[in-house]
Specification:
about 170 residues, alpha+beta, 6-stranded antiparallel sheet, 5 helices, about 35% strand
Length: about 170
Amino acid sequence: MTTPLLQALVHSPLRARADGVRTVRPTVLPPGIGEALRPDIRDNCLLRRSRLLTVTGQTVSENTVAARSGVDPRVDKAVTDPSQPVGFALAEAEVVLRRRIVHVGRATWPDGTPCAVKTYTLDSDGRPLLCIRELFNPFIVDAAVRVKELTEMGPVRAAGARSGPTAVSTPTGS
């Protein structure tokens, strides 16, 4: 879902550039990712670092993907395929997972500039199978928080929506 939105934002197709994929023990997963993925201590994990680039080579996002290896060969293949975004590879393999947002906020872009960040898991049978953290280029995706504008908006509710907590799960595929 993220890649098509970013493509619409930059009015251009994006290509993936995997900077590396390796098999690691759960203890070496980056902070926050290991806790969200919740691998068993005996699991092997795939760790992928990649970027989404415009046709001119501008980085739109920097992504860290961790997956519990050996659970689903289609997922392993999608994570290790350097030629396309993980979501596109999962969709091509007809893998249907549930997305669970873990964190949305601000982080630091590699040049030190504050940037927007989103971390989510893709779950199978109620358990995380992948965890993806996306840092968004602050010159493309504004990381500024406009608290006044948000508080002036008041609650936003769809027609016919009920009060109280709501869980939303959406299949991945992009």
